[in-house]
Write a structure and sequence with these properties.
With 173 residues, the protein is mainly α. The chain has 5 helices and 2 strands.
């Protein structure tokens, strides 16, 4: 039996497992930014009709970061074309990042079954029963060395508890 319980209440009970998605979130964000760069590159190349001076391409597809090289080479002469391409790139990257936020919010807030949905109600273990005072606590090392006998619990019997070895212990209140 698992002896580690989640007895959280309030906001702590609704803590999500979003930390496990941090890597996925980073990958999706980087992909959205790369898609924005790719869009800006392709728009700029389209505006210049895939001219040979733009460099190497495969079926008119350029590397996503080619727009950065072109901006460094021809930024002064063709700033309006770069601005036009950049606007499309920012639009695509922004929509991608916005979609990521919406999807992650939906995934984080979707209903998940919780073993602890109705609070902390569960079967008590030995430690719980001893802390409640229904069973005597074990003797401390100093009590054992000094020969102090274990205190007898007085009170009304309220039930019994069976340990892992099958021995019954009477609970008193």
């Amino acid at each position: 039996m698992k002896d580690k319980f989640n007895n959280s209440i309030g906001p702590l009970a609704h803590k999500t497992g979003s930390s496990s998605n941090k890597g996925l979130r980073a990958v999706v964000a980087i992909m959205a930014l790369l898609l924005g760069l790719q869009t800006a590159t392709q728009v700029f190349a389209f505006d210049f009709q895939y001219h040979i001076l733009l460099g190497m391409n495969v079926f008119h597809i350029y590397a996503p970061w080619a727009i950065i090289d072109w901006a460094l080479k021809w930024g002064d002469m063709y700033s309006s074309y770069l601005l036009h391409a950049g606007n499309f790139g920012i639009l695509v990257a922004g929509v991608g990042l916005l979609l990521q936020v919406v999807v992650m919010m939906v995934l984080d807030n979707s209903a998940k079954a919780s073993l602890y949905m109705h609070g902390s109600a569960r079967w008590a273990n030995l430690k719980d029963i001893q802390l409640s005072g229904l069973l005597p606590r074990p003797r401390k090392l100093t009590e054992w060395i000094l020969g102090v006998k274990q205190l007898k619990v007085a009170g009304v019997f309220v039930g019994a508890w069976q340990d892992k070895r099958g021995k019954s212990h009477y609970l008193r209140h």
